[in-house]
Amino acid sequence: MMQTISEDVRKTAAAAWLDTFKDRYGLAPETLEPASSDAGFRRYFRVTGSASKTFIVMDAPTDKMNSEPFVRIDGLMKAAGLNVPEIYEQNLGEGFLLLSDLGRQTYLDVLNEDNAARLFDLATTELVKWQQATRPGVLPEYDHALLERELKLFPEWYVSRHKGFKMTEKQQALVNVVFERIMANNLAEAKVFVHRDFMPRNLMVTRPVGRKFPCRVISESIGATSNGWGCSATSRFWGFLPGLITATESPSTSPTRRALSTTCVRPRTATMN
Predict the structure, then answer these.
(1) Would you state the pLDDT for residue 39?
(2) φ and ψ at residue 109, rounded to 5 degrees
């Protein structure tokens, strides 16, 4: 009950914030409705503006989250030529952002045997563009400690808690050897920008305005196709990662899902994260 009350307070605060500039976009704060939510504390609302155009309001309570990285990475990705959400208004003091609406269809909603190869080709192409924008000293680096921490989510959350299996000392030792080899290989690779949440649940099919090749990523992006489909993703935590695509969840996400994602990393010929 306390959580519901707290959420209602945040929604009311978001509506009040929108009211201060509603005429600029023809917003109707009373149309504010849930759009989606993260596994953590961040939530998204949809609000209607002029000509039935919709916007997304990101709600990230400042006592739980810091939205500055989202804003900063959105700018970095835009500079790299990726199709990211437009940030129209921001109130970092209260934890609110007004974003362009990337639509309602995720990759997971539309993927099938006929379009999977094409859509993921678009996705990996955008990741390469993000890699090519890499600049040292801009984002935190993946180091041995961070890689080890994320790899260990697999035996702790997937093997032990999800599957209910207890490994023997011999099995655990073998897993540790494998992990060390993986980390040594990763750390020997060139380091590039990484998107840690790049997966079908976060990639969105969209049709951006004013672009020859449609594509959008809520702070990650995907290219376009001949029929005008593109895709987009939600940006959360970014950094450098050597030599792999990592489809891990953000730290606020379910540990079980993070463990599964961490172990599903696959090396690619064109090193990307």
Answers:
(1) 60
(2) -70, -35
